[in-house]
Amino acid sequence: MKNKNDLLKMLVMQAKCRLRGERAPRKENVKLISKTEDEVLYEKVVNILNEEEEVLDPIARLMDMTKYKKLDQAGKERYFFSLVNKYRDLKDRYIKEKRA
User: Residues with Cβ < 8 Å from 87, sequence gap 6 or more?
Assistant: First the structure.
């Protein structure tokens, strides 16, 4: 009986910590893409940033439209915002590498 009580106490403490915002390192619920896919995306970002003219739609150029069209509305939003974050990170990487 003691083991069940200990388990219950532990679960209650974890729940309290979650409610207070004190979480243990959480697992990312994000699909990780391989390095090769990241590098392909990086090459696209480099090409966009190296163009002579100002690019007004960099995210649209990075999008896989066949994949995008198959997604529901929530999926489209997740896909779009993940590309925005990746573009920002890869742009920062490009700027750092260019300075070096």
Answer: 45, 58, 59, 62
Length of the chain: 100
SS3 string, the chain, reads CHHHHHHHHHHHHHHHHHHHCCCCCCCCCCCCCCHHHHHHHHHHHHHHHHCCCCCCCHHHHHCCHHHHHHCCHHHHHHHHHHHHHHHHHHHHHHHHHHHC
* C-alpha 57, offset from chain centre: 20
Residue 71 makes CB contacts below 8 A (sequence gap 6+) with: 79
Per-residue pLDDT of the chain (100 residues; tens, 9 = 90+): 567 778 888 888 888 877 777 665 555 555 655 667 788 899 999 999 998 888 899 999 999 999 999 999 999 999 999 999 999 999 999 999 988 7
| Sequence ranges of the domains in the chain | 28-99
What does the alpha-carbon distance between residue 55 and residue 33 come to, in Å, rounded to a whole number? Answer: 26
